[in-house]
Amino acid sequence: MRMATRLCLVRHGETAWNAEGRVQGQTDVPLNVIGAAQASAVGVALAGERFAAIYSSDLTRVRQTAEPAAQRLGLAIRYDAALRERHYGMFETHTYREVRERFPDDYARFRNKELDYDFRGGESLRLFNQRALGCVRSLAARHPGESILVFTHGGVLEMLYRHATALGLSAPREFEIPNGAINWVEVSGESWNVQRWAERAHLENTLDDLPE
Questions:
Q1: Active site annotation includes 163
Q2: Are 150 and 8 a contacting pair, CB within 8 Å?
Q3: Is 12 one of the catalytic residues?
Q4: pLDDT tens, residue by residue, 148-188
Q5: Per annotation, catalytic residue among 67, 85, 92, 123
Q6: How far apart are CA 113 and CA 140, in angstroms?
Q7: N or C, fewer C-beta in 10 Å, the chain?
Q8: What is the DSSP code string of 149-207?
Q9: Rounded to an integer, what distance in angstroms lies between the CA atom of residue 139 and that of residue 6?
Q10: pLDDT value for 212
Q11: Which CATH architecture has domain 5-199?
């Protein structure tokens, strides 16, 4: 019988670009003051938990979110580029409103969740989903019967939630992915179970920056 892995998944704290509705993707943007406070709050909230390891995207906003928890838990952070956000190509650095106005056809393809649309040089939804799921499957397989802490991005969390709940990639997103929120998913082979999602009692305020 396969032993389950318990995943504690945390979205990075707020950045100035989150607050502006600006597309970050793989552009390396640091936390703002609110985001730094959220990172500290995550560390406090998880201080009583026991984890076998901590994994994190290597982008600055996620590294900064992971550091307070790592310090409190006394664990080193293992960085993995496969936990990065989706590459949004030509959308990155623009606000969603700017993209919608300047590139209406591209924006429509994005909003329609076309599986192979790649922002003219970014990453398609199909390939991003494969990357996100493949990475987390690999992490879970390394830690059967253990709990691990994973810091990542909203897009990665969306792919994991959709997979765990059998919600198709093209279905509207009606679940929340707030900055700094804590999510718990149990993985046993191909059996994924969302235990708790979007916990944010430790946060004073938080954004869920859906495109317009």
A1: no
A2: yes
A3: yes
A4: 999 999 999 999 999 999 999 999 999 999 999 999 999 99
A5: 85
A6: 28
A7: N
A8: EEEE-HHHHHHHHHHHTT--TTS---S---TT-EEEEEEETTEEEEEEEEE-TT-S---
A9: 11
A10: 55
A11: 3-Layer(aba) Sandwich (3.40)
Residues with pLDDT less than 50, the chain: none
* Interior/surface letters 128-151, b for 16+ CB within 10 angstroms, e for the rest: bbebbbebbeebbeebeeebbbbb
Q: What is the pLDDT of residue 139?
A: 98
Say what the pLDDT of residue 209 is.
78
3-class secondary structure for 35-103? HHHHHHHHHHHCCCCCCCEEEECCCHHHHHHHHHHHHHHCCCEEECHHHCCCCCHHHCCCEHHHHHHHC
Domain spans, the chain:
5-199
Distance separating alpha carbons of residues 9 and 11, to the nearest angstrom = 7
pLDDT at res. 1? 58
Residue 210, both tokens: 């859906």
